[in-house]
Known about the structure:
This protein has about 130 residues and is an all-alpha fold. About 35% of the residues lie in helices and about 0% in strands.
Amino acid sequence: MSIKFNKSDPLTFQDTASAYLAVQQGKAEGMVANTMTTTKFVNESQTKGKKMRMIDDPMLYQPIGVGMKKDEPALTAKINDTLRALDADGEINKIWNKWLGPDTEYKMTRTDKVVKLSELKFDPIP
């Protein structure tokens, strides 16, 4: 499957660092990577190399979930209750900020909330 974005001709690289280097060398106009990696490269580019920016709309939305054994209602309820409580009291934000937040090299802001899978609106990857 080939993805065309703004009528572009995609290139492939062995790794994300090579794609970033190609942008910095003017051999590519942009790159696609996961949000955390792209954010780090964009932030780094503000002080050295060609300045980059990240588009607001993701090309792909990948919700994060917790996998567990089927037919374990007590475990499912406990995990769901724990995640909702951690989100409600701000603990997930504290953990996020420690590893990915504004005072880290990633400088990311958490906007997602813990929700039921049935509440997510996205197109699954084919």
